[in-house]
What does this fold into?
Amino acid sequence: MPGAHLPQVQLKWPNPGSNEPPSIFNQPRILTMATRKLLLLPGDGIGPEAMGEVSKLIEVMNRDGNAGFETEEGLVGGAAYDAHGQSISDSDMELAMAADAVLFGAVGGSKWDDVPYEVRPEAGLLRLRKDMELFANLRPAICYPALAASSSLKRDLVEGLDILIVRELTGGVYFGEPKEIIDLGNGQKRGIDTQVYDTYEIERISGVAFELARTRRNKVCSMEKRNVMKSGVLWNQVVTQTHKAKYPDVELSHMLADAGGMQLVRQPKQFDVIVTDNLFGDMLSDVAAMLTGSLGMLPSASLGAPDGKTGARRALYEPVHGSAPDIAGKGVANPIAMIASFAMCMRYSFGMVAEADRLEAAIAGVLDDGLRTGDIMSDGMKEVGTEEMGDAVVARYRAAA
It folds into this structure.
């Protein structure tokens, strides 16, 4: 039966300072498990609606295939702030740390624009990433054949597009200190953010990119701003050294991040794997996402280091889209990115490769059938809502059993 008695694949990662290259594909450690523990954090806006379609799929997999998923649900973002004045509670953080994987929806909305900075909705996601030490963010940008016409670019530029952006997630300007606003007097203030990277952080994220490239078209483009930023100079040096020492078989190129944004729009299919820092990765992945036609289509995975005793690694999976409060509660949100994030979860956290392939094929099949949510609607297609799209994917998945 699909999903029954499958092993959990724990990916092998080195410790900081190790001479071993970071790898998510070398010598995976296999651990068996009776149940697969998932923490669901729907969050705000369209997050709960999209997560509902994943919950529906999990119920079907448990019932039809004895998949063994055990789920708990917590609060994050504005929903958590409304409940207890924090962007995520300590108790929900404990659940996240104990789970085999976390599925995350979206956070934020104008309702919480004026809450204190340290408890803003986005702080919940940042705490999850930081406390779980999720340093490697994988963001694929794939253009489904049925959606090539939905891109804002010409079909020939995006048809067959398959890019993977590897973003460093726990360092850089989002976490660097000092981070403050100083009152200078005379009505003047100074805002300070600090961009900081250590050698080991760049080594491990670039190693992930090189390993992934070896499973694809064997090309990595590293992006930074070495022309104006010292951290960019170090980034360029360390990536070059890591490549020379461990991955000379992979084709490496370097590009300034602003030029990279231009090239993503001008000629996106020139790229295979892009590796970059936290700030530029945040921006470039959103640019790449829109090449595919909609932010509602794209998943992401954030992976961490293994537990020293059990070998299990923490992981969080989330759609690239935001909370979209303007359409929240209307039943029109696109759930595909959330469903595809669950496919990544099965692939990377549970070793359920066949099930992940089957789910991704179900998504492509539904699109081939002409079903569209409003964000990807085009002439001649059938517009459906969140639940109808989710139901169609589940039906396709079951039919392929």
About this structure: Residues 37 and 70 are 5 Å apart (CA to CA). The domain at 1-137+294-401 is CATH 3.40.718.10 (Isopropylmalate Dehydrogenase).
